[in-house]
TrEMBL record:
Name of the protein in its database record: Quercetin dioxygenase-like cupin family protein
Top-rank taxon: Bacteria
InterPro entries (UniProt xref): AhpD-like (IPR029032), CMD-like (IPR003779), Cupin_2 (IPR013096), HNL-like_cupin (IPR047263), RmlC-like_jellyroll (IPR014710), RmlC_Cupin_sf (IPR011051)
Domain Cupin type-2: 290-350
């Protein structure tokens, strides 16, 4: 059996190979697939969708990832087109299996937190669109406030939080859907802004427009190009001068060769202190880099139906199982966490800490978050 480090190395080589940049534009082959299947599913061109789905699966997109795009579609184009797209996906998979063509199903998403869904959705919107809203869940339910609750608790919590597609990829898919629908420019403008804010480059959006011009429709491409130009103009006019900007991630957080990612706001309720999360891989095995500021730790928790492997890549931290003494962790340490074991992990009080978290495959796996690691417990550790 391969060691966790050798296994991680082979997975990363596969991931980097899949992420080969096309000479045509700045989108990877996988991202090009997402853009095309989102567009044809949204405009209802099922014949082109079938071809695009088959090509996307060849390019490394998994069946579960394509299904996520079509699930998300219903919030923007309605259930009929979402269900039609899912039916096309199922038909393509069956046809590929009959031809013995390699098809990767990929991993399903982890369970989305069910508590504080309004706040989780609100913070996801803040992150994607660069807002700083702090409103509470409405107590009265007129049509406008109900729509607000649906957007935050369902679309931006139940759907967007499903983690087998990166948020950046979901925003590319959403821009493609809205551009294909053609007559929804206020929403297209908002999501182009969101795609840029969450980390997609201007070049990637221009790559999306190139795909539209060649494969979807010239009028749709021209319209999307005009909206992108408007967003870029407005962002330039409102941009804070560079000397006044503050980095979103402290320099001290970069303690390993892996990306730090974004503020881990979606799971902040389960952490004491600030943490950052970067998704590195979702194919077959989920790999994330989690970075903790000094003193930060997560709550006691249990992984049901599936274990986890932690590989320390920077700083100094702690790992503790229920009923056992805490063990200090340093770069190079590997921790195997079996399923159903209550535990916590985090930084020491005076050091940043980073580890890779590998979620082992398992059916119906969930995380159960429990009580906090109190200051009294934590400060005893030496």
């Amino acid at each position: 059996m391969k060691s966790p480090l050798l296994f991680l190395g082979s997975l990363m080589m596969t991931t980097f190979a899949t992420a080969k940049i096309s000479a045509e534009n700045a989108l990877t082959e996988r991202e090009q697939g997402i853009v095309q299947i989102a567009a044809f599913a949204a405009n209802g061109n099922l014949e082109k969708l079938k071809t695009a789905v088959d090509e996307s699966l060849d390019a490394g997109l998994t069946v579960n990832e394509a299904g996520e795009v079509f699930l998300q579609l219903y919030a923007y184009a309605g259930f009929p087109r979402s269900l039609n797209a899912q039916n096309v996906l199922n038909a393509v998979v069956q046809e590929r299996e009959s031809k013995k063509k390699k098809t990767i199903f990929g991993v399903p998403p982890e369970k989305v937190p069910s508590e504080n869904r309004y706040a989780v959705g609100r913070e996801q919107i803040n992150k994607i669109f660069g807002y700083n809203a702090k409103q509470n869940r409405p107590t009265e339910m007129g049509y406008a406030t109900t729509t607000d609750v649906f957007l935050k608790e369902h679309l931006f919590s139940d759907i967007i939080q499903r983690n087998n597609l990166k948020v950046e990829e979901r925003e590319l898919a959403t821009v493609s859907m809205l551009a294909a629908l053609f007559n929804v420019n206020p929403q297209l403008k908002a999501h182009i802004h969101g795609a840029l804010t969450i980390g997609n480059s201007e070049e990637k959006l221009r790559g999306l427009i190139q795909i539209f011009a060649k494969k979807v429709g010239k009028k749709e491409a021209k319209n999307a190009e005009a909206v992108l130009a408007q967003v870029l103009k407005e962002q330039k006019e409102t941009k804070i001068p560079a000397e006044e900007e503050k980095p979103a991630i402290p320099r001290e957080a970069q303690i390993s060769a892996f990306a730090v990612g974004n503020s881990n706001d979606a799971y902040a309720q389960y952490f004491i202190g600030k943490s950052y999360l970067a998704s590195l891989n979702r194919d077959e095995v989920s790999i994330s880099n989690v970075t903790f500021e000094p003193g930060c730790r997560n709550n006691w928790h249990i992984h049901h139906q599936s274990g986890q492997i932690l590989i320390v890549v920077g700083g100094t931290g702690w790992y503790q199982e229920w009923g056992k003494p805490a063990q200090k962790l340093r770069p190079g340490d590997v921790v195997h966490i079996p399923p159903e074991v209550k535990h916590w992990h985090g930084a020491t009080k005076d050091s940043w800490f980073a580890h890779l978290a590998l979620s082992l495959p398992g059916e119906n796996h969930t995380n159960e978050w429990l009580e906090e690691v109190s200051d009294a417990e934590y400060l005893k550790l030496k």
